[in-house]
Amino acid sequence: MNPTLAASSAPHSLTGPDYLCLACYFAVNLAIGWWCRQRSRRSATSFFLGSGRVVWWAAAVSFFATSVSSISFMALPAKSFQGDWLAIGSAPAQSCAGIVTGFVFVGIFRRLNLTTVFDYLERRFDRRVRYFGAGLAILLKVVGRMSIVMLLPALALATVTGLNVYLSILLMGVITTIYAMEGGFEAVVWTDVLQSVVMVGGVTIALRHIAAGVPGGFGGIVDTASAAGKFHAVSWDFDVTKPTVWVFLGMFLATLFFQISDQPLMQRMLATADERDAKRTVTIGNLIGLLSGFVFFFVGTALWTFYRAHPERLAPTLPGDAIFPYFIVNELPHGVVGLIIAGLFAAAMGALSSMLNSSATVIVSDFYDTLCPGRSVAARTRLAWWVTLACGLAATGMALFLAWRNVPSLWDEFLRLAALLGGGFPGVFALGLLTRRANGPGVFVGAVVSIVFTWWVQTFTATSVFFHTFLAIACTMLVGYVASWLFATRGDAKSLRGLTVWDFAPASPPPRAAPAPVTPSS
């Protein structure tokens, strides 16, 4: 008898073994936060970068966990379930660009001994540009990505347990915020490693059960989907309203600078021991992400094949983004459900905790330290703790709002938010790294104009969401470069040593400052 079909004769909710799996998973995450608690409070460097002692392979896995999130776990299978593989081009476009970024630009940032990527903007341009970039990043993470990656698993939990989706969001936000507050960056990295293992294990088990329910197994999935054109993945049409090769070429060019401007991702390479490990972190993290993109798209296609063989098992009013958790709930045996739902939470919690810690890093390092220099270790770490809490609460509130709004495709919604709020700002990094002419006033004008231009593109054109970020970055670079000529003054002449690809830094950078001694907090 087919094991999947025998175990899924009727929909079922979580049982004792499922709850036990979830409870153990959450408990281990909290335990890691507690275990890292003492080291995280030794200094702000410990809380933000693990004192630069994070091993490269763990940083690479954390890089992957940060970039994947529940958006991949749920929205990508939903895309391929509903259509074909045309959208898969986003995976190689982003991953290949990230690998190029690792080899070309990571060395520059490591030699500058940074805590955040926005520190580079002040050194290259001025403090105003640093504040603007850091502020946009916080806005995008808190009201954009964090809230969406919380909402997706909350929807899955509501489907599985019958809990109200708003209550599910609150539970998700509290657990993740607690261990991110307690353990700092090291807790975030090691919980990312745990969460990646759980997520990969859960997807592997789910794929095995899907194949068991399809005539011919994995071969049957490939044959059936191929005959139906579900693996159609490449379009050479000159059409920017659809996911074509040209759109993904633009996405590749945009991602070159999008990753280098993304603090949660770059925080991993800044926390490694040296430049070599930093490049390994970015390269391996992107390679894992590339593989995972293909796996998640295959999950969606496999689910389509499964429900084509068993159409009576598919609810007619099922929301598109919920197809994978729907299969988990209704088709898998007791005990396994809890493990895979833990993997769903893992996909979200890795990205969420990373963004919480990076938001605290940006607010303390880019705002507090520059506006209130000379503060004690205790004051800085205490502020980081409270900022993590505040960002967790704000993201939870935004997730509740999105649940009320009931957006049709959360992945598309996130891409729109990313392009609008911060899509053009990587162009500022591009101007800083690639040109000597760009200056602070010019790039500031370029970034502001790109926001207005992106809003116009999203409102009045049918351009594919995959192309929005490229257009935003291109607008920033074009307007910013021209404006830099207009605002050029003699005072712009300053040393660019180590700040562009044309002005190389010394081969032996100064070592990262040693952590300050522990100061008892009041």
Q: So what's the CATH class of the largest domain?
A: Mainly Alpha
CATH architecture label name of the largest domain: Up-down Bundle
Number of domain modules: 2
Query: What is the count of DSSP helices, taking H or I runs of 4+ residues?
Result: 21
The low-confidence runs, each spanning 5 or more residues with pLDDT under 50, are 1-11, 507-511, 513-522
Can you characterise this structure?
- This protein has helices spanning 3-7, 16-35, 37-40, 44-49, 56-82, 90-104, 106-111, 118-124, 127-161, 165-212, 217-227, 245-258, 263-270, 275-309, 323-331, 336-371, 377-405, 410-422, 426-434, 440-460, 465-486.
- By secondary structure, the chain is mainly alpha-helical.
- The chain folds into two domains: 12-403, Sodium/glucose cotransporter (Up-down Bundle), CATH 1.20.1730; 411-503, no CATH class.
- Helix 8 runs antiparallel to helix 9.
Short summary:
The chain has helices at residues 3-7, 16-35, 37-40, 44-49, 56-82, 90-104, 106-111, 118-124, 127-161, 165-212, 217-227, 245-258, 263-270, 275-309, 323-331, 336-371, 377-405, 410-422, 426-434, 440-460, 465-486.
What characteristics describe this protein?
522 residues; mainly alpha; Sodium/glucose cotransporter; 2 domains; 21 helices; 73% helix; 0% strand; globular; disordered N terminus
